[in-house]
Amino acid sequence: MNARFARIAVLGIGCMVFVAGETYAQSKSAHPDFNGVWRPYRGGRGGDPKIAPPPASPLALKPEYAKADETRRAAEAEASKRGEPIASRAVSCVPYGMPSMMSVVSYPVEITQTAKQLTIVTEAFNEVRRVFIDKPQMPIDDVPPGFYGRSVAHWEGDTLVIDTVGIKENVRYQNIPHSDQMRITERMRLVTPDALHDQITIEDPAVLEKPYTYTLAYRREPDYEMVEFICDNNREYVDEKGGTHLRTEAK
Q1: Any domain includes 251
Q2: Which of 151, 163, 192, 219 is in the most buried spot, having the most CB atoms within 10 Å?
């Protein structure tokens, strides 16, 4: 090999190393892959501590809301004793909305991830939520109230930070009251390649003394196929006072 070809060969090898190094750097900086079906993971006795969610922070309602919440819970307990529980969203075929839809019993959620959007579909009631990545959030008063609000997100390292506003006041998590100024911040990240944590913080200056934070944990279900789950309740009805009854021939 003459000197000219030897120099070209060395340069070629150098280019290959450079390209390989660039590819490696890109793979190292790529965002985590949230694609797939995820089933809620509750932890409990014998659970994996790396996957199990940490405890929630204390819920601190402002005094006037705390009193109303106690009254409501007492009314619900009394109705249950009578055998006429106050209708739940499931019985009424009303969507859970945010943030409840992110964890309904053990029903899974499916995430489809692209560079510009995260689409979340729940198996329970086929609820659909869209998170727009790297788009600015609208002023909270300009977002039409809905079940899912408007969600935008940005990456902070390996964590997707999601900001959601515009949730209707009658859409609640565990029946916790909130105002039209509620803001939900999620920090979604992989704790292992097949375990996902979604830390949810609810802020509401009108209702809460301080933010309320809890974490949802999920395990990836690589072979699971989502099924249709439509709410079609012909067995029960809700009367004018909110009581739930079994349907009879007369009703």
Answers
A1: no
A2: 151
Percentage of the chain exceeding pLDDT 70: 77
Residues 58, 10 share a domain: no
Assess whether 90 and 110 both reside in one domain: yes
CA-to-CA distance for 102 and 131, rounded, in angstroms?
A: 13
Indicate if 65 and 94 belong to the same structural domain.
yes
Kindly report whether the global pTM for this prediction surpasses the value 0.85.
no
Q: Who contacts 218 (Cβ-Cβ below 8 Å, separation ≥6)?
A: 38, 39, 40, 41, 108, 109, 195, 196, 197, 198
- How do residues 9-49 score in pLDDT, each as one tens digit? 434 434 333 334 433 333 345 899 999 999 999 877 767 88
Q: Is residue 218 part of a domain?
A: yes
Does 20 share its domain with 66? no
Quick check: is 209 in a domain? yes
Number of domains in the chain: 2
Q: How far apart are CA 59 and CA 76, in angstroms?
A: 19
15: domain range?
1-30
pLDDT bin (cut points 50, 70, 90) of residue 90 is low
